[in-house]
UniProtKB/TrEMBL annotation:
Protein's name in the database: EF2563 family selenium-dependent molybdenum hydroxylase system protein
Domain of life where this protein originates: Bacteria
SUPFAM superfamilies: Single hybrid motif
Family annotation (InterPro entries): Se-dep_Mo_hydrolase_YqeB, Single_hybrid_motif
Lineage: Bacteria, Bacillati, Bacillota, Clostridia, Lachnospirales
Source species of the chain: Candidatus Limivivens intestinipullorum
């Protein structure tokens, strides 16, 4: 089978999923991403999920275009671009059977992905058992095992503790202090100082300011007007003010995971080709 005929469906198009989608498209695979109607990617400047809102977005030279139908999605993929559809329940699988399916939602639980969805199935992170739910699981926890391809068993459980950047972990992540509509006072890539209000959450005329605990670059923030819940992760700040380009490019973690997904697919393909 020619690579351009090996359709890969990726559930999710956030920043980690985008690393995988980007890698697969560059390698010549047609990729269809399936997203919710209201994606909540924090690092949205490096996430193909933004195409759900804007119709088209680009990350590191690869475009992702929103499709309103399966036929339109195939036309997009023929051009060498990634396609995205709003289909969180994977109803498109009632009409097509992909060569492979990758669950990159990173929900920390299985939202329905199973081995019957495609000839080859891979899931990222905890919530899946390799050999049962899917063929392979990719470790997403930072550390020595990041990107490890698991053939039997599960990825490490989510700790809920953000990764350390320049000595800061939980301090760099901003959670919504209230429920309501988000109004941004700073944009991704802006330099902010500790104690600065970077956004406001408004509900019923009450405006609740949102502050950053540390100084640095706004690395990610939800879209203007997004309906947030209290406690929802809504932004993060990178203390390395010299790393502005990082706000708009695929992360080291996403690249590592993407390489493992590609290796996993090639491994499954080679395994299928073995005699007997």
């Amino acid at each position: 089978m020619k690579r351009r005929e090996q359709l890969i469906i990726v559930r999710g198009a956030g920043d980690i999923a985008t690393g995988t989608i980007h890698r697969l498209v560059r390698c010549g695979y047609p990729v269809l991403a399936l997203e919710t109607a209201s994606p909540s990617a924090i690092r949205r400047r490096a996430a193909f999920s933004e195409a759900v809102y804007d119709g088209r977005t680009q990350v590191e030279g690869i475009a992702c275009v929103k499709a309103e139908s399966l036929g339109e999605a195939f036309e997009i993929m023929k051009r060498g671009e990634a396609a995205v559809m709003t289909d969180p329940e994977c109803r498109v699988l009632e009409r097509i059977r992909p060569w492979a399916l990758v669950d990159a939602v990173l929900a920390k639980k299985n939202l329905g992905t199973n081995r019957g969805m495609a000839a080859k199935t891979i899931a990222l992170g905890p919530g899946f058992t390799a050999g049962e739910d899917v063929d392979l699981v990719i470790e997403t926890m930072r550390g020595h095992n990041l990107g490890r391809i698991i053939q039997q068993g599960c990825a490490m459980a989510n700790t809920g503790v953000p990764g350390i950047i320049a000595g800061f972990g939980k301090e760099r992540v901003i959670y919504s202090p209230a429920a309501g509509r988000l109004h941004c006072l700073a944009d991704i890539g802006d330099v902010v100082t500790a104690g600065q209000a970077v956004a406001v959450v408004e509900k019923d005329g009450v405006r609740t300011p949102v502050y950053t605990a540390i100084s640095g670059l706004v690395r990610g923030m939800l879209r203007e007007g997004y309906p947030v819940k209290e406690g929802l992760k809504m932004a993060d700040v990178d203390p390395r003010e010299s790393q502005k380009d990082n706000c708009f490019t695929i992360s080291d973690k996403a690249r590592c995971i993407a390489g493992s997904v590609l290796e996993g697919l090639l491994y499954l393909e080679a395994r299928d080709d073995l005699p007997g």
